[in-house]
Amino acid sequence: MGSVENYSRFLKHRIFDTISQEAEALGVRAFVIGGYVRDCILGRPCNDIDVVVEGSGIALAEAVAKRLRCRVSVFKRFGTAMIKSKGLEVEFVGARKESYRADSRKPIVEDGTLREDQERRDFTINAMSFSLQKENFGELVDPFDGLGDISRKLIRTPLDPDTTYSDDPLRMIRAIRFASQLSFEILPESFESIKRNRARLAILSIERINEELNKILLSPKPSVGLKLLDDATLLELILPQVTNLKGVETVEGRGHKDNFYHSLQVVDNVAELIRQRPVEQKENRAVEELWLLWAALLHDIGKPSTKRFEEGIGWTFHSHDFVGGKMIPGVFKHLKMPLNEKMKYVQKMVQLHLRPISLVDDQVTDSAVRRLLFDAGEDIDDLMLLCSADITSKNDKTVARHKKNFELVKQKMKEVEEKDEYRNFKNPITGDLVMEVYNIPPCNLIGEIKEYVKNAILDGVIENNYEAAYALMEQKAADMGLVKGGAPAATGEQSGDSPR
Ligand code: CTP
């Protein structure tokens, strides 16, 4: 027999020794299994450790926690326990042979051996384990040649794929997620099985699906996973708003681009541009970059319903930015994603995604640039990144021309910003101020005054400072018949003129 490579170099942390000793004391065998083993071999960082025990995972976890004097969380119902120690999270579970009912992913669990446990795992690369027994500490136990699949860059199930996928249909999406994250191929018969079993997706909770989607979006080239989801006909079940973008129609010899493949390209471009970002733009962000990738995927979802063929003009998608923005809450609700500032951010990105590029066509006025800075606020860098990623064309010259114009807009933006701080522009005139000065209750006159002052500032009619704004408020209020500290004028009255 040839020499067996030993992996104890990945088991240097004190906790592995402790687990080994406590397992021996309890008379059970314990192994590190799954993602930690895979990631160590692939050279990827990993702080989540799964330990499988031929016996009670909970009993071993409790013994280890006692020795290390750390807390243990026990999940009796699942037969698992978790220890957190010095940045590591270790989950203990008893080895099991599982059988699943066809209508649910809740397993009927029976105790089993390591080998039986490995068989029931999702992929060969996730079924490898390191022994923690004293006599062969660090030895790889790899009955399905996961190591070979790592070198072949292959996603393969330990058992017949129909069995593995029907045990837990989420694995169909996990296969695609790992292929996208690791740039691996899925074994063709495994992929065929995914297509065959697509209906089983229905038993999954949308939260679990969404977790995998997020991981696909955060993978180096998200289009790999998104295309696989589409090829497997799963994407249309999860995100029909995106697969509806597919297809090219031709009228009078004029076609438009396939907005599905365009959107995938934009997601890849955004992923690449995020990687190239200077560090200072990565820090202090209001929302994570994941949401910028979501905005990229969804930026054109308003196109199918706004598509028209106009004589003499060709294909148009008027207001698809606005319509797309309106669709965002529905998509977020369906995927059970947070309906908070993250959703509002994606909505804003979708709604504003045409604005920077539209400035290219106009002569770029200071006023238009200020309005964009005002509307995008602190998300202006993300919006510019999305907009630049949105410039795709088969014709390199067209891309180069658009990018050049886009750089002009960026330059102009820098100039306007340097002159006056519009990124964090806040109207100096607040509703409270107007109510206080004129002693009036909440009414639409207040909004009118505020809007009037804001437009005057953004149009450059007055300077962007408190004194100028206050003076204009006084002037406007006087025109409306308001008296300082005085009796309220008739509310609801419209005063007409605006500086715009
Ligand atoms: N597993 C499985 N079937 C699933 C989920 C997980 O067989 N549907 C097994 C795999 O052996 C996997 C391990 O449980 O390696 C741990 O799962 P999880 O923590 O979800 O994933 P990781 O493989 O650790 O990968 P990642 O951290 O990237 O999610």
Question: Could you please describe the fold and organization of this structure?
Answer:
- By secondary structure, the chain is α+β, with helices and mostly antiparallel strands.
- It has 4 domains: 4-149, Beta Polymerase, domain 2 (2-Layer Sandwich); 161-238, Hydrophobic Seed Protein, CATH 1.10.110; 274-281 and 289-420, no CATH class; 426-500, no CATH class.
- The chain has 25 helices and 15 strands.
- The protein has helices at residues 14-26, 35-42, 57-68, 114-119, 146-152, 161-167, 170-182, 188-196, 206-217, 222-231, 235-238, 240-243, 259-276, 279-282, 290-298, 303-306, 320-334, 341-352, 355-361, 366-376, 380-389, 396-419, 431-438, 444-458, 466-479; strands at residues 30-33, 48-53, 72-75, 80-85, 88-94, 96-100, 107-111, 129-131, 140-141, 154-155, 185-186, 250-251, 254-255, 308-310, 314-316.
- The strands form 5 sheets. It has a 7-stranded mixed beta sheet. A two-stranded antiparallel ribbon has the order 6-7. The protein has a two-stranded parallel sheet with strand order 10-11.
- α1 (14-26) packs across α3 (57-68), α7 runs parallel beside α9 and α7 (170-182) packs antiparallel against α10.
- The longest helix is centred in the last third of the chain and has 24 residues, at 396-419.
- Mean pLDDT is 90; it is low at 491-500.
- It binds cytidine-5'-triphosphate.
